[in-house]
Amino acid sequence: MSLLELDGVKVHFPIKKGIFVDRTVGHVYAVDGVSLKVEAGETYGLVGESGCGKTTLGRSVLRLVDITEGSVVLDGTDLAKLPGEEMRRFRRRLQMVFQDPLGSLNPRQNIESILSEGMVAHGIGKDQEERREKIKSILEKVGLPSNALARYPHEFSGGQRQRIGIARALVLEPDVIICDEPVSALDVSVQAQVINLLDELQEELGLTYVVIAHDLAVVRHISDTIGVMYLGSLVEEAQSDALYAEPKHPYTKALMSAVPVPDPEVEDKRERILLTGDLPSPANPPAGCRFHTRCPWAQAERCATERPELRDVGGGHRVACHFADEIAAGTLKRTAGEVVSATREGVDDNPTSDDSATPAVPQQAASPERETTPEQAVAESEAQAEDKPEVAEAAAEGPEPAAEPAEKSDSDGKAEKTEKADGAEADGAEKSDDAEPAPKADDAKPAESAEKAG
C-alpha cells in the first residue's frame, strides 16, 4: 500500500451572487477528479500551466481547503473524514513549504519563536531549552547558523527565508512534505542550493515529497514520478525519464517541446508545437476531453463528447487520451495547431524580398548621368551672372538643380539623348550652343529702352 493515495479528489468553489441573500449560481472546478499514488521515500512532481489546480490539490491534501468529493488516504487513514481536532493532530505528519517564504513567515516573530510554535502545539520537547537545541540542529542541516534564532524574517535573503520554511517543516518530523513552488522566487544559483538541500534531507531522513512547480527542468531533476495536470485533471503520469523521453498526451507533447535543449545541434533540428486558443475557464470547462479545444489531434466525433479516463498504456505510463496509441504510431493526422522550429519561432531565416518594400537602390545608379553634364552647369552659371533678373526668378521659383533629377526620372529618353550628344559633339561646340541665349538677352535690352522712349 502506498504512503499517500488520492482517489477522485474534487475541490469545487461556489460562485455566489446576491445583495441580501447569497445564492450559488455556479462553481469553479479547481480540482475535478484527481487520482494518484505516492510511494514512501519518493518524490512526486506535479506540473502544469498556471490555473490548472496544482496548488489547490496540494492544499487539499493538508485540508487547508475543504474537499468536495473523494478521499485522501495517508498510511491507511482517510484525511477527508477526520474531524477538526483529529486532523490538527494528524497534520504533524504532513507539512508544507509555501511558494512565498516571506509571506508565510510572521514578521513580528523571531526565528526561534516561529520554529518552536509548532513544536509547542504538538508537544515536542520537554522544555524550551530542549526545543532550542533541536532547532539549532535543524538549522545546521539546512545551512543556517545558530545565531539566526534571534533574528527576524526581513533580515534574511530570499534563499535563507526558504531554508527557514524548510526548517519549520522539518522540526515536526513529518512523513510527507508538500513543496509548493519551493524555488520559483529564487535566483538560479540559490535554486540549485535549495534543490540539493531537499535531496540531501530526503536521503538522510527518508522524507517523501510532493513537488509542485512550473520549471520542468527542476521537476525532472528532483522527481521520481511526474504527473501533468490540465484544467483540474490529471492528463498523464509516468516515471520521470519515460515521460521526458516519450510523452504520450498531446498537452504533454506541447509542454515538453517548449523546454530548450542545451545542445545547439539538437536545438536546431527540434520542432515546437504551438497550441491555438486560450485556457478555458475552470468555471465553465468544455464538455468531453478538457483539452479538445486546443488539441492538435482533436477528433470531433469523440473528443468533444466523451471524457477520457486515465488508463495505463504500459509500464505504469498512464494517459487520459482516446487516441494516445494512434498519435504515438503517427496514424492520426493533425487537425489544428502549428509546428515551427524551436530556434526561430515566427522568424524566417531566408526572407523573400518584396518589390514594394525594397529601398529605391536603382535610383542611386543615376548619379553617374548627372556627373556627365558639367558643361551645362558652367553655361547656366555664366547665363545667371550676365542676367540678374533671371537669377532672381530662379531663386524665387526654387533651386533649379533639384528639378533636373525629377525630369530625368520622368523621361529616360532625354538622358539617352544627352549622352549621345555628349559623345558626338566637341566641347567647344557645346559651349557655343549653350552660350547663344546670352546675346539674345543683350538684344532684348535696346528693344525695351526703345519701347519706353516711344
Task: Write up this protein.
- This protein is of the alpha/beta class.
- The protein has three domains: 41-58 and 86-245, P-loop containing nucleotide triphosphate hydrolases (Rossmann fold, 3-Layer(aba) Sandwich), CATH 3.40.50.300; 246-349, no CATH class; 370-453, no CATH class.
- The chain is 40% helix and 18% strand.
- The protein is built from 18 helices and 14 strands.
- The protein has an eight-stranded mixed beta sheet, sandwiched between helices. The chain has a four-stranded antiparallel beta sheet with strand order 2-1-4-5. The protein has a two-stranded antiparallel ribbon with strand order 11-14.
- Helix 3 (111-121) crosses helix 4, helix 4 (128-141) crosses helix 5 and helix 13 runs parallel beside helix 17.
- It is globular, with a radius of gyration of 40 Å.
